[in-house]
């Protein structure tokens, strides 16, 4: 299974927790607790990768924590987004498990009632 690093943070002033995957632009999640945002991030990661595969687009190789910290030091825009965040490894769920859990079909699969 793939493990991607998410930056997880609680916005200043409270509100929902927020997670983003720098290796997968646009792949984000929110939750009202740390556990909820990590679960939502796992779901978002699974769906995002499934969509990339369905569109026959390459899935980026996930960076490890050391490479991610180097990237933060070299990219001021990324550094601003991760202030106050923690690095959280998130393992994506197998697409079949996600489909079974949500009742949604896998990309390209048709469910017959």
TrEMBL record:
It comes from the Bacteria. It comes from Tepidamorphus gemmatus. Residues 15-69 form the HicB-like antitoxin of toxin-antitoxin system domain. InterPro entries: HicB-like, TTHA1013/TTHA0281-like. The lineage of its organism: Bacteria, Pseudomonadati, Pseudomonadota, Alphaproteobacteria, Hyphomicrobiales. This is Putative RNase H-like HicB family nuclease. Pfam families: HicB_lk_antitox.
């Amino acid at each position: 299974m793939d493990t991607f690093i998410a930056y997880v943070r609680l916005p200043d002033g409270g509100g929902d927790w927020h997670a983003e995957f720098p290796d997968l632009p646009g792949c984000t999640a929110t939750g009202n607790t740390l556990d909820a945002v990590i679960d939502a991030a796992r779901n978002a990661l699974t769906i995002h990768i499934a969509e990339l595969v369905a569109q026959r687009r390459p899935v980026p190789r996930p960076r490890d924590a050391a490479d991610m910290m180097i990237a933060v030091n070299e990219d001021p825009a990324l550094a601003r987004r991760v202030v106050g965040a923690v690095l959280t490894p998130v393992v994506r769920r197998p697409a079949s498990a996600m489909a079974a859990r949500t009742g949604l079909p896998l990309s390209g699969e048709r469910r017959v009632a």
